[in-house]
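hey can u run this one w/ cytidine-5'-triphosphate bound, need the structure tokens asap thx
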Amino acid sequence: MSAREVVLGIGGGIAAYKSCELLRRLQDAGFGVTVIPTPSSLHFVGKATWEALSGRAVTTTVWERVDEVRHVHLAKVSEFNIIAPATADLIARIAHGRADDLLTNTLLASKAPTLIVPAMHPAMWANKATQSNVSLLRDRGYVVMEPDHGRLTGSDIGVGRFPETSHIVATFKEMTDKANDLSGIKVLVTAGGTREMIDPIRFIGNNSSGRQGFAIAKAAMRRGAEVTLVLANSTLPDLPGITTVRVTSADQMFAEVHSRFALCDVIAMSAAVADARPAQYSDSKIKKGSLSSIELTANKDIIASVAKDKKNQVVIAFAAETTLDIEEGERKLLAKSADILFLNDVSGSEIFGSDETQGVILTSQVSQSIERVMVDRISKDTLADLLLDQALNKLG
Ligand code: CTP
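ok here u go:
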């Protein structure tokens, strides 16, 4: 077997024929590829083609070569999985943990990073069921490519086309190159928005969904880091492979970060921390007649307090502003002893809860100057990788 083993899963869509070329290009890139077609995909490209091209045995169900227990064996030896094309049905089956053919059994048994390349009719891609399955898979750490826009099999035009082979190979290479570059690195991430309780019913909170920090935690895990996520009031799920610590208030978050900071190599402080809490917490509900004002007391600045004593840790902070005030971002970078700060303009409420973001990455340089990199509408997953790339640079 070659150094980097890959499972190439083929779904039952017409784009299956394009994956013959993809298989060749993956082999050219030095991967040893085992093809697992779904039974229905054999209507488009037969077993003999895959066996001839891959030079390996090809089976589609768990009832063939039973002595090898192929799904468990392939899940163990494969370092990466790539599913191309992924039909709406295959995406739904993976999202729901189904195991009704060899491919879905193998994926369920696999811990390897997986790239999913969808291809289907635009209406099927746009359908809420498919979109919700895709976000579920992304939340679980799968990389799901966006299909291309263009002419489909029939006369329809829209988003759903199988991406160009070169684009798929480049995305896959990016994933595999980064797969272990953070191995041995401990990454501490905070995410979500803290809640400062006023009484048992009411709290001071904010709009943060936790998505950016979640994206950093997932990317760091995918890249081999040991990840702890301190998550405040988020509905996002616990992820296998990430230690998730759930907190409510800024004080609780401070305690969790403080006790872990000395042992981490990188901290990404993406949580939206309330700057103040009610001076008095009322054990019983405050009646509306007495609720004309709330006296506040300041919370500690978590990142500034821990980062001022940093040793070799790389500190990534965030700043959410309603105008893209770069000078203010630079001031915060220095005030919080951060090495990297992502400044985003959250006006218009397009960023909170969205999968996309935009802003400026500010990075402190050895020369004391601050480098500015403008980031224009990218996914929070892509930003996560960019920030981790910068952190890795700083770690040397
Ligand atoms: N932060 C923190 N502790 C706080 C407040 C903020 O660690 N009590 C962190 C945030 O997680 C973020 C960075 O500091 O990484 C900047 O947060 P931001 O709310 O933009 O800045 P503030 O310092 O709160 O300043 P202001 O509210 O005046 O803009």
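The two ends are 33 Å apart (CA to CA). anyway lmk if its weird
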